[in-house]
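Handoff note, outgoing to incoming analyst
You'll be picking up this chain. Sequence as last confirmed:
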Amino acid sequence: MKNLTTYLFVIFMIMFWVFRIIVAVCFNLGIDFIVTPMDLNFEVILLFLTFISVILVIKRSVLGGVIYLIGNGLYFGATIFNAISSQTEGTLDYMNLFISFVGILLPILVLFDLLLDKNRKVHPVDKKTDWFYKNKEYDRQFDERADRNEYKF
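Most recent structure output, in case you need it:
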């Protein structure tokens, strides 16, 4: 993780994960919170998948971004669909809809970040050492005396 965007996306993933943990705990304890989970069992499964995908995203694996997108897409996509379909009845929950949009947008941005950064993983550039190792001026040049090991004391 060398980019600022990657750090920010991982921080947002962890913050959203903690927020979803708080939502699940509050729902389980019967405390009213600003949002409610659609399905508590799938929410718990999604929390574990998110934890695994955060670790894979930190390791720069595209599989982590794909798992994160599929899991959140299934859960929050259904929430968005249910919220839009309930709009015809006149009962639209805007906070659940907003959280669901964030839950869909964040994995898409994380996957794009991973896909765009994949080229840098194949050809890494380290400015601290490349000036020395990839520069012909700093190659060690032997003189003829060093090649024959004729040192005089």
